[in-house]
Amino acid sequence: MSRNDLEELSSAIEDSARLIGAPFSRDQVWPVLTAYGDAVPNAMIAFRVATDARHEGELDCRISLPADADPYGVAVAENFVTETGHPIDSLLADIAKRCPIDSYGIDFGVVGGFKKIWAFFPQGDFQSLARLIDAPSMPAALAGNAEYFARHGLDDRIGLVGIDYDRRTLNVYFGELPEECLQRDNLLAMHREIGLTDPSEQMLRFCAHAFGIYATLSWDSAQVVRLAFSVMTPDPLALPARLGPRITHFVRNVRYGVDDPKMVHAAVTSTGEEYYKLQSYYRYRPHMVNLESSPDAGAELA
Fold this sequence. Notes:
302 residues, alpha+beta, 25% strand, globular, disordered C terminus, ABBA
């Protein structure tokens, strides 16, 4: 990709960061853009903001990569990720040996720099828990909670995984959810069974329209750390959710992907804090949203 094209994307990231008061750091952004720049012309590119305190003052950017890319090798070579002998060092390679990979993705923040690598499985070719559990570097918590996921009909519905090298956690995304999975009593049970606070009525209404769920696990806990529910909608401000002033301002003023759908994730933390993440697209690629039921999912929420 030409330097001018990368400069244009960098400028778009800086403009978007300004909307939420995030201090744009070229020193953090430019090395990542140049390292993965060859993929940018055909990539899905998205910006993400969140309402919780941990993400205050941060804008994350996601860029998709083709299946023949080596996102981890690049990250290590560019010193975005430091290998320490932790199982996370080999997790992506272990997954690629066992599961078909349709594409990859990376996440980085304007403040925090490089954070995550995503592995997307082929559309409609969901992977099973058993196949992922077989990876020797997988957090033991995945096998330890296999019965929990199976009980809620999720054990063979994995569409992608995300590896957070910054926080040493793993996100496992489930799609084509069973209808009963999103019923109120089941939503409450899913949270209670892993020790999370009951969602508010507002969040229960939101979760009932989800097309996907992702679970966060770590190597340091036997428990599922977090559940998040994902909705696609052309109008996030119509959702039964309090997105807060920063995200509301972002939605109303972002210059990019105005006519594209937005993805909203909702979760409850272990302390009971409810928060939302919004993903807005600089360049939308429907096939890259691997768990999406349709571009109009969530359009009728009120």
